[in-house]
Amino acid sequence: MLMELAITIFILNALYISINTFRTMLVVKGHQFLAPLVAVGEELIYVIALAIALDHIDSPLNVASYAVGFGVGIYIGIVIENKIALGYVNFQVTVQIDPQNPVHAHNEELAEKLRDLGYGVTVSRAEGRSGARLVLSILAPRKADRRLMEQIKEISPDAFIMVQEPVQLSGGFWSKEVDRRYHGVDHH
């Protein structure tokens, strides 16, 4: 009976914290309708888990089960959010261009190759310490971020890549095309 109680406490707390971690990420990403719905389930599990844990706090095994469930729950919540991969990422890719240097020849074609792969790419010319640069801005769903990173490195191994999560998107080719391509959303 003691072991079953410890396992129950562990499972309930891991479940509660998993949902809590996921709900926190929903709030940060601005999901104002889904986050409160998830919070209701989260709090229901929390009250049950806490009541059981507090009724049986006299056992070090139960306290340890509660604590370990907390850590495991955070890990599971992060895994869930990474699998769902809500939102978008914006890649800022900077590459050196030098027509005289064959090492940088592939960098001139990076934008077109990425467009051929289905990404929207905005290109700006810039000047760096050691010469001309192209700065590419690429919006992609978070689900595609690892694949895009690999594709950029494959095409231009010397690229400087910075990835950011935009808080809001509005208008333009990016949001319309990316939503349509990856989420089936039609903006008409």
Topology:
Elements: H1 2-28, H2 34-55, H3 60-84, E1 88-96, H4 105-108, H5 110-116, E2 120-128, E3 131-141, H6 145-155, E4 160-164, H7 172-183
Antiparallel strand pairs: 1-3, 1-4, 2-3
Question: CATH topology of the largest domain, what is it called?
Answer: Alpha-Beta Plaits
Number of helical runs?
7
Architecture of the largest domain in CATH?
2-Layer Sandwich
Q: What's the average pLDDT? A: 83
Task: Characterize the overall form.
Answer: elongated
- Rg for CA atoms: 23 Å
Helix and strand content put the structural class at alpha+beta
How many distinct domains? 2
Q: Would you state the CATH class of the largest domain? A: Alpha Beta
Q: Biggest sheet, strands in spatial order?
A: 2-3-1-4
The major β-sheet equals: 4 strands, antiparallel
Helix residue percentage? 55-70%
Distance between the termini: 60 Å
Assembly state of the chains shown: single chain
Main location: membrane
Membrane topology: Multi-pass membrane protein
Family: Belongs to the UPF0316 family.
Keywords: Cell membrane, Membrane, Transmembrane, Transmembrane helix
